[in-house]
């Protein structure tokens, strides 16, 4: 198996792709956005329960490739309980990170999302990884 | 059958991707181009670079001669007269031309168009638009478990309100072949016309539009070893004659006054503006290339390759085909490995396949899928490449265990 492929499909990504966390309906959601990748049919609906300046709960539904679904699962995990400003900063950092040159250092603040380091080498797959980030931006009122 | 000699004509085959020899199995998306097509396009751009049907000078005459020869070549390829060959930018624009120009003249409120559940978006959306504009209904014939048009159900949709039936000759996902002649008889008996989307057929099946009995036949150059941006609409002369123009401009007019114009005869009426000259000449060269091959040997080789591919895929645990493909391609779902991820992993082994819904969302929904992986063949593929495909799919599964 090709090394780049192994780098791309790290165990945590396969795990979250196959067994997504925070998946399903989210009662009481205050924010919601659905984004599609018409090229491949990936779809993510991200929902948030925001109270004051904090995200009390995050959940998603969707379908598509391992990368789009694993990213949604990992991000929803991080968003849960986060301050909205911190969440925005994290999403922006993740989106920028995915487009950085392969081999650049992985920012520590990304945590588990740093597992997406491998996608920096797969340009055609970067929109899959950032689909949930776009959903977050749209759900929270950004233009994305 | 050894396709080595055929392969030598295709320079794109002779390359490595990600350090592996290219295995190109995405021919349903676009085919590679033989040297003869590349040379024809280069000559049209490098030497015979005049406009067509306009100048009396040498370059214009050379371009016009090559352009007209291409129209004749394409006409012979589908056994039609050249004045029934309209050059377009591709299958999509061929179908839009009919939906818009024919639709404007012939679709009335309350009329109906029948399409099928396996159509590519290009043979569905133009009809949705035309029907919405004209106040007509769009009826959809269902598809069976094998991915074939349910002809009895289609027949049941035909009544005196139906003006047009639109079907694909070969499904770009299920790989099934529609019984075009039978559907033509049914459509005509109901007083309707038949348009056939031949985009996936022309590279694999001999096409004789008279024998098929349809009224319009659309296809693209780039799925036929020719350039992108050029395609063909064949239509019966009397139907083209009765159709108003689609787009207005130069080349399509007989005489122009400031507030009105008289239009030329078909096919020129439907070819407004300077055409894709190099593209048309390249398409002519592609057709000439194909017609010079031993077509029986090509068909036998493709058929053997397809059988080998189906057998190899059948051996893979958890792999489910979309329908029962009859030629050229196989789309499939591999349990536990999303199609997009599979295509990425295969790409790193040098193997090009397509993943997604292949512009046929409704058909995927019919089979309970949102996407599939698709391997599609051309005559230059080899048995060894099929074996590499199967081995690479097996390795991809290991990643997802």
Question: Can you tell me about this structure?
Answer:
The complex is a heterodimer of chains A (about 140) and B (about 400). By secondary structure, chain A is α+β, with helices and mostly antiparallel strands. Chain A has helices at about 5-10, 10-20, 65-80, 85-100, 125-130, 130-140; strands at about 30-35, 40-50, 55-65. Chain A has one domain (about 5-140): Sufe protein. Chain: A, CATH 3.90.1010. In chain A, helix 2 packs across helix 3. The longest helix of chain A is centred in the middle third of the chain and has 15 residues, at about 85-100. The termini of chain A are far apart. Chain B is built from 14 helices and 17 strands. Chain B has about 400 residues and is of the alpha/beta class. In chain B, about 40% of the residues lie in helices and about 15% in strands. In chain B, helix 5 links the parallel strand 5 (about 110-115) and strand 6 (about 135-140). The two termini of chain B are about 35 Å apart. In chain B, helix 3 (about 60-75) packs across helix 10 (about 275-290) and helix 11 (about 295-315) packs parallel to helix 14. The interface of A and B includes residues 4, 42 and 65 of A.
Q: Gyration radius of chain A, to the nearest Å?
A: 14 Å
Domains of chain A (count): 1
Largest sheet of chain B: 7 strands, mixed
Q: Mean pLDDT score of chain A, rounded?
A: 94
> Average pLDDT of chain B, to the nearest integer?
97
Structural class of chain B: alpha/beta
The quaternary state of the protein chains shown equals heterodimer
Please bin the fraction of helical residues of chain B: 25-40%
Q: What proportion of the residues of chain B form beta strands (DSSP E)?
A: 15-25%
Short characterization:
Chain A is built from 6 helices and 3 strands, in the order H-H-E-E-E-H-H-H-H. Chain A is of the alpha+beta class and 144 residues long. The model of chain B has no long low-confidence stretch (mean pLDDT 97).
């Amino acid at each position: 198996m090709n090394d780049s492929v192994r780098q791309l499909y790290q165990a945590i990504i396969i795990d979250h792709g196959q067994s997504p966390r925070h998946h399903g309906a989210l009662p009481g959601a205050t924010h919601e956005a659905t984004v599609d990748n018409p090229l491949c049919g990936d779809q993510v609906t991200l929902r948030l329960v925001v109270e004051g300046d904090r995200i009390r709960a995050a959940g998603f539904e969707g379908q598509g490739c391992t990368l789009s679904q694993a990213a949604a699962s990992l991000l929803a995990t991080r968003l849960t309980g986060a301050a909205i400003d911190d969440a925005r900063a994290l999403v922006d950092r993740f989106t920028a990170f995915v487009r950085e040159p392969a081999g650049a250092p992985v920012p520590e603040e990304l945590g588990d999302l740093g597992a997406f380091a491998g996608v920096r080498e797969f340009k055609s797959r970067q929109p899959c990884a950032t689909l949930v980030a776009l959903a977050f931006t749209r759900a929270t009122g950004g233009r994305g | 059958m050894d396709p080595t000699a055929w392969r030598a004509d295709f320079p794109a085959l002779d390359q490595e991707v990600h350090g592996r020899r290219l295995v190109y199995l995405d021919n349903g998306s676009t085919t590679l181009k033989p040297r003869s097509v590349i040379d024809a396009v280069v000559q049209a751009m490098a030497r015979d670079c005049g406009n067509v049907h306009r100048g009396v000078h040498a370059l214009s005459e050379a371009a016009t001669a090559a352009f007209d020869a291409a129209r004749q070549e394409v006409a012979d390829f589908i056994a039609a007269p050249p004045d029934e060959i309209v050059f377009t930018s591709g299958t999509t624009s061929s179908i839009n031309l009919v939906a818009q120009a024919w639709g404007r003249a012939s679709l009335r409120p309350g009329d109906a168009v029948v399409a099928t559940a396996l159509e590519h978006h290009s043979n569905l959306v133009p009809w949705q638009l035309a029907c919405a504009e004209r106040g007509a209904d769009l009826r959809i014939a269902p598809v069976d478990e094998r991915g074939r048009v349910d002809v009895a159900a289609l027949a049941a949709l035909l009544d005196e309100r139906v003006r047009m039936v639109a079907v694909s000759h070969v499904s770009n996902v299920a790989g099934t072949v529609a019984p075009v002649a039978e559907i033509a008889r049914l459509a005509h008996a109901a007083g309707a016309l038949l348009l056939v989307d031949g985009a996936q057929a022309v590279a694999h099946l001999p096409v004789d539009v008279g024998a098929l009995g349809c009224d319009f036949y659309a296809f693209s150059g780039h799925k036929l070893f020719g350039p992108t941006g050029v395609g063909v609409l064949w239509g019966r002369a009397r139907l083209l004659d009765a159709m108003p123009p689609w787009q207005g401009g130069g080349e399509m007019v007989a005489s122009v006054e400031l507030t009105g114009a008289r239009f030329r005869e078909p096919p020129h009426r439907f070819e407004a503006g300077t055409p894709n000259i190099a593209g048309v000449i390249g398409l002519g060269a592609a057709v000439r290339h194909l017609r010079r091959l031993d077509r029986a040997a090509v068909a036998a080789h493709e058929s053997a390759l397809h059988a080998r591919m189906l057998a190899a895929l059948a051996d893979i645990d958890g792999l489910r085909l979309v329908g029962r493909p009859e030629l050229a391609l196989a789309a499939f779902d591999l349990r536990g490995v999303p199609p997009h991820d599979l295509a990425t992993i295969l790409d790193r082994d040098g193997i090009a396949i397509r993943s997604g819904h292949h512009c046929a969302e409704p058909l995927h929904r019919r089979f309970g899928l949102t996407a599939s992986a698709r391997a599609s063949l051309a005559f230059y593929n080899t048995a060894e490449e099929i074996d590499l495909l199967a081995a690479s799919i097996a390795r991809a599964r290991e990643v997802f265990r």
